[in-house]
Amino acid sequence: SSYNRVWIPNSEEVWQSAEITKNYKPGDRVLHLLLEDGTELNYPVDPASLPPLRNPDILVGENDLTALSYLHEPAVLHNLKVRFVESKLIYTYSGIILVAMNPYKQLPIYGDAIIHAYSGQNMGDMDPHIFAVAEEAYKQMARNNRNQSVIVSGESGAGKTVSARYAMRYFATVSKSNSNAHVEDKVLASNPITEAVGNAKTTRNDNSSRFGKYTEISFDQRHQITGANMRTYLLEKSRVVFQSENERNYHIFYQLCASSLEPEFKHLKLGHAEEFNYTRMGGSTIIEGVDDRADMKETQKTFTLLGLKEDFQRDIFKMLAAILHLGNVQITSVSDEKSSVRDKHLNVFCELLDLDNDRVAQWLCHRKIITTSETVIKPMTKLQALNARDALAKKIYSHLFDFIVERINKALHFSGKQHTFIGVLDIYGFETFDVNSFEQFCINYANEKLQQQFNLHVFKLEQEEYMKENIPWTLIDFYDNQPVIDLIEAKMGILELLDEECLFPQGTDENWLQKLYNNFINKNPFFQKPKMSNTSFIIQHFADKVEYKSEGFLEKNRDTVYEVLIDILKNSKVSKFMVITLLEWGFSNFFAGPSFENISGCDDPTSIPKGVANCCTSVQFRSSLYLLMETLNATTPHYVRCIKPNDEKLAFEFDSKRVVQQLRACGVLETIRISAQSYPSRWTYIEFFSRYSILMMQHELSLSDKKEICKTVLKRLVQDSNQYQFGRTKIFFRAGQVAYLEKLRSDKLRQACIVIQKNVRSWCQRKKFLRIKQAAVVIQQYFRGQQAITATALKQTWAAIVIQKFCRGYLIRKLCQLIHVAAIKIQAYVRGFLARKKYQKMLKEHKAVILQKHARAWLARRRFQNIRRFVLNIQLSYRVQRLQKKLEDQVDDKNPFVLELNCQGFQILELLQQYVNTELPSHTDFVLTMGGSTLLPNLYSICSFQFYFFNRVLESQFQSQKENYEKEIEALNFKVGHLSQEIIHLQKLFREENDINDSIRLEVSRLTSENMVRFKHYTGRLKGNIAFVSTVCDKHLVTLDFTDLKPRGVVVNMIPGLPAHILFMCVRYADYLNDGEMLKSFMSTATHGIKQVIKEHAEDFEMMSFWLSNTCHFLNCLKQYSGEEEFMKHNTPRQNMNCLKHFDLSEYRQILSDLAIRIYHQFITVMENNLQPMIVPGMLEHESLQGISGLKPTGFRKRSSSIDDTDTYTMTSILQQLSYFYSTMCQNGLDQELVKQAVKQLFFLIGAVTLNSLFLRKDMCSCRKGMQIRCDISYLEEWLKEKNLQSSSAKETLEPLCQAAWLLQVKKITDDDAKEISEHCTSLSVVQIVKILNSYTPIDDFEKRVSPSFVRKVQAMLNNREDTPQLMLDTKYLFQVTFPYTPSPHALEMIQIPSSFKLGFLTRV
């Protein structure tokens, strides 16, 4: 129909877009079109084959080509061009294929930050990237324990080597092990070596791989790299002796020549590359931007990293230099049949390889022919001798290359057992040149095999998808290239006929070609003979027809060197070293016969028949290719197709002809064709509901099941049920149906816009009309009034004004009086209220004065009583000592002594009774502890001593007076018993009031119940126990730790940092004792204990917060009580009295500060690990603004996250997590400044992760998503305001994200827009601004893409900026943390240790 757009062929651009201007009717032979340049065209059409339709603009530029509604060649080409040229995106999915365009420019999309961004993500969640394919392979290997392969193919210069290198770097980064073997570094180090000896400059590529390479990267059960193994295919040996114009030999030769002046290379006698035939043939010895000398250093460095010693390197470089000198050997013609050689380069060649100069000179110009009867030595012509020289050089380099590869494999072989592996295949793509020879034939044969494997894999995946969704499977017709493969490799095929011809000594290329003509012309449709040539043949490959020149096929397949030269080389010391090494790896000989290093399919290479072995290049290649296909079929393949956008190596230039040629050759279009035959567009029910809910009716939306809603709506919108299928989780659409639905959606939105515009315009016009009408009425009023003015009217008007004046004055006075009365009443009530309030306050103050008077009096009396008790205690102790001394002095007196003893005993008992009655009830703690001993046992001791001594004197000296004194002794015993009962009573009271040490209480109770006769003995035991208890307490003090304390509970509800205060009080006790050893031991134990609890709870946020707070409080206490003036000025006088006296703890403060920084970093890491999984779903994927959906078709690679937010993180989840962090930090008493720093760090993480994900997700770069992001940022700002954290600078960390959201929403058309963007986006780098502009994706037809010219304008305005070219923000960046000094307001003497701490061994000093 009209206004639809179609694609028509174009000679320059391959396909050209045009718009239909007149409805097409069935049977019409002409299509009326309007080209994009305004030209009208009547395009002839065939009714059976109409031009392909163009996709809606909304679908152009998709990440996945399978998301296109119309799947065909022009749609694929246009989508790639839009992404590559306009959006500067080099990667695009095509089903299971990653299409990689070579940008010919360094892009900032391969850093470690990008690797970490793709790590753990699903392919559909991020923009297409080589890292996404590598992550998918790594993930499937880890999840399914199945080997994987990443197949990278493409033309020379398309970027295969770089893509394979990035894939390997990804595996090395994400699977990095903790071992010291540096396996990953060694795996990556193999690339510079293989590129040096196997890559060369060609007309298409400055670093073209001239061999195929399959690298197996081995992993253990923990999915960490354990080693690697490399297999190579079909090295281009002819490049050693010949290069086309503007091409170079292998890089290693030029690196050697550039380093020839270095001391370690002078013995090689090399010079500039222009001096050697093998390096100057192409006329281009220098590559712009490449430093061969620096590359040589890198090559030597990687040799060393792989463990290849200097003597090995020296031998390698000798052989390479020998090849260069061999190429300079001049052969002169003696006659038509003879030639000779005498050259200084031959001498150097022989010197480097330690060969016999004369023998080499002889056999370069002669050959030995062995017959059954004799051996004939035949001279060679100059041409034959040159060919022999070149063949020898090729043979030496070929085996040297194989040897280096094997040594690399040996260096990459580690003892660990291989659990799984990922293979990276870097192999040449389909090639067709003006002249195609044996190498191109082998390359295209390998690509035929790979294409067959690829077709079968795609077919298998399609079938699995249909079966999984319970959709009827219909056989899809796809191209099968088995007939072409049979033509090449089957019995009596091209390769077998080639090998057969090589068996004949007189076999020629012409004879072989004639056999091909006889066997295949008119018999095989895939084989043709050129019309204008009798030396070529044509094969119809899957990609294109290729014409091969038969010249040189036999020689290249034979790949022979004269045996005499081989025997001479065997005598070389250098070559012998190589032979021995290769024999260790299972090779039969180094220089004899062709290399069989890749024929793993052949258990014994020597078992190949001799005739076949002499022409076994094709045999070798077939065997290695068979092994490769066997390996690939046993793995899960992942495909990367590298495309060369132009032949001039221009950055972001798109040559449609070259690109479409490669797309046809690499299988991308075949994938599209297979998909288009069935149901290429696939949507989940949720995606369909979210996108097309606008097309649903009210009664349909009333249904509860979204799946049923989708089915009902689709049946109403698309009448033909064959155009779609309902799967288990997806809806499958045929080609064009999504475009039709998009058209319906656009029409509905357009109609809604028209209605809105109609009403808005109607409202604006009506408002304008009413404004004009009002103006007209005013004008009419004044005009009519001007005519009606008279004298009477003036008098009446004046009278009316006077009346109004008096009336208004009366009303105002009346109102004023009313207000005056009301004000007086209000003042009366207010003054009364204030007077009563003042009276109540005075009354309370008076009562408080009375209370204070009595309280102060009571405190004064109590203080006086305490002083009096203290004096009495001293007097009592002094009198007891005097009495005891007096007893000793009067021991010899008898009768006077008895009387004095009785008197003194009664005095002691009276004093003891007085002390018990008056002092003990009010001063119980003095009874138990005073100067490290107890008073009560002393009194008991004195009494017992007197009693014991008195009895002994009476028994020995006064037996006659014994009866007289028994009554007095019984009186004393009665007094002591009464005293014991009083002590028991006092002990009960003391146990009720205080929780004293159990051992002391036990000893006191035992002392009071013992017999008075054993008092003296028991006092000694009591002293020993007291000393033991003191020792135990000191030991506990030193080993004190709080690892069992929990952040939640009674601890955090008391003084913030209570454990820190307790720790400091222990430090102060050590300072009080002036015990340096105790202090050192305690501080060491405390810091070790904190480290241990942090290590054991490394992922526990609450524990981290708790100990970060206590470590900071402990550090602040050490500063606050250090005695330093700068800290003391913040203390109270009482706190300054508690400062440390004997030790300077500045050294321990530094240790604690370092520990606090360590805890803080771990604390931030724990919070980031908890928050990071929520950021992208909550900030980007969740639609916080209802009705603003940014969903578009996603194609084959579906997003992992569902649009249904029931099981995913939302913005609310982020805010709840932040609130949890904040409340926990506050609850644990973390300093407010430290809380602000932590919140700032979290907000930076949110902004950085969101912005990084935005850079890597083109589908998120839309105006609507910018609105969503800005809304989410406002929620975060509200949270900051609610928590009073505006001063934390957290909002400033979101500035780059704010500017990115603004950039998505702002208009991007005019020069003023570009200027505004350059002035406003100051927190974004130039690379980031350009990336967002290039990635901007319209969600609806009403939005417009950002034109490349506008992007260039912005870029030109920002050229003067000096910022980093880094695209991604560093999410691991940590702001510098500062620990503010906040003195504790709590007095140490007021702090009590709760019983829940279980620290009963601690007592207050």
UniProtKB/TrEMBL annotation:
Coiled coil: 955-982
All copies of domain Dilute, residue ranges: 1084-1360
Region Actin-binding: start-end pairs: 625-647
Biological source species: Pelusios castaneus (West African mud turtle)
Protein's GO biological process: actin filament organization
Lineage, uppermost ranks: Eukaryota, Metazoa, Chordata, Craniata, Vertebrata
Name of a matching Pfam family: Myosin_head
Family affiliation: Belongs to the TRAFAC class myosin-kinesin ATPase superfamily. Myosin family.
The UniProt record lists the keyword ATP-binding: yes
SUPFAM superfamilies assigned to the protein according to its UniProt record, in alphabetical order: P-loop containing nucleoside triphosphate hydrolases
The protein's name: Myosin VC
Residue span(s) of domain Myosin N-terminal SH3-like: 1-55
PANTHER family to which the protein is assigned, alphabetical: MYOSIN (PTHR13140), UNCONVENTIONAL MYOSIN-VC (PTHR13140:SF313)
Boundaries of every Myosin motor domain copy: 60-746
Binding site for ATP: G154, E155, S156, G157, A158, G159, K160, T161
GO molecular function, one term: ATP binding
Keyword tags: Actin-binding, ATP-binding, Calmodulin-binding, Coiled coil, Motor protein, Myosin, Nucleotide-binding, Repeat
Keyword Transmembrane (UniProt): no
Any one cellular-component term (Gene Ontology): myosin complex
SMART domains, A to Z: DIL (SM01132), IQ (SM00015), MYSc (SM00242)
